[in-house]
Amino acid sequence: MPPATTRDLPHPAREEIRLESVLHALSDPVRLRIVRELAADSDELLSCSHFDLPVTKSTTTHHFRVLRESGLVRQTYRGTAKMNGLRRDDLDALYPGLLDALLAAAARQAARLGTD
Amino acid sequence: MPPATTRDLPHPAREEIRLESVLHALSDPVRLRIVRELAADSDELLSCSHFDLPVTKSTTTHHFRVLRESGLVRQTYRGTAKMNGLRRDDLDALYPGLLDALLAAAARQAARLGTD
DNA sequence: CGGCTCGTACGATAGCCCTCGTAGTACGGT
DNA sequence: ACCGTACTACGAGGGCTATCGTACGAGCCG
Fold first, then answer.
1. Which residue has its C-alpha nearest to nucleotide C9's C1'?
2. What is the reported pLDDT for A2?
C-alpha cells in the first residue's frame, strides 16, 4: 500500500495543459498573487495555510483547485498539510518564456500600483 | 468638428490597462484567435468582418468590445467598418516581452494541437 | 482516546459571461 | 431617396465562478 501520508490528487498531464486555462487561472487577483508567492519561494513547497489571503478557507481551497486543474501548480499532501509548488518544468517545456514573462508583468503592475 | 467618419470609442488609457483583464480577455479561444490574427498582420488594421469566426455577429461584437476594454486592441471607425489593431506599443511599454511570450505560447499550442 | 489543525465537501447565493435573435443605427453607393 | 452593408443595442437564456457557512474527514500529538 502507498505511504499513509499520500492521498493523491488529479493533475493534468503536461500535454493536457491548455493555455486558455492557464490564462484564465491567472486572471483572478487572488490566484495571481498565490502564483507570485510560489514563484518567489520557488525552491520551497508552501502549504495552503501559509498564504494570508483575503478570502475564507473554503474559497482558498477552490482557488488552489483551479490552479491545480489548470496545470499551474502541483499539490501533494504532507501529513495534514497540502504542499504547493509551481510546475515550472512543465510550463517552461510547453511554453518557453511564458511564465517568466507573466511573473515579470505581474511584478511590474504590482510595483506600478504599489500593491507589493 | 471631427471628420464625419469618426465615431469615437472608449479605450482605457495605457496606465489603466490591468494585467488581469488582459489575461481574462485572452482566456477565451475566440478572442485569442482574433489577437493572433491581428498580430500576424500587425502592420494592417483589420475590420471586424474580416474574421471568420464560429459565432454570430452579435457575439463577435461582444468579443471585440472585451478586447478593446481590456486594452489589447484599439478600434477606430472607417466609414461603416470598424478597424482593429493590437495596442502593441502600450502593452510593450507596460509589460515588456509579455505579448510576444503570449503569442509564442499560443502558436506553440496551435502547432501542438494542429489547430493552425 | 480526545482534541487540535489542516483541508474538503456540499449547498446556496449572487454575479458575471458567452451565446444568440431581433430590431435598429450609421455610413456609403446607386 | 433608397438600398445594402457593417456594426450596435437590448434583452434573454444557460452556464460558469467567486464567495461564503457549516459540517465533515485525515492526520498529528499529548
1. A58
2. 41
List own/partner pairs for A100-105 with CB under 8 A and 24 or more apart: A100/B101, A101/B95, A101/B97, A101/B98, A101/B100, A101/B101, A101/B102, A102/A26, A102/B23, A102/B98, A102/B101, A103/A35, A103/A36, A103/A39, A104/B95, A104/B96, A104/B97, A104/B98, A105/B19, A105/B94, A105/B95, A105/B98
Cβ contacts from A onto B, under 8 A: 74
Write out pLDDT tens, residues B66-110.
999 999 999 999 999 999 999 999 999 999 999 999 999 999 999
A7 at B interface, C-beta within 8 A: no
Question: What are the pLDDT digits (tens) for A72-112?
Answer: 999 999 999 999 999 999 999 999 999 999 999 999 999 99
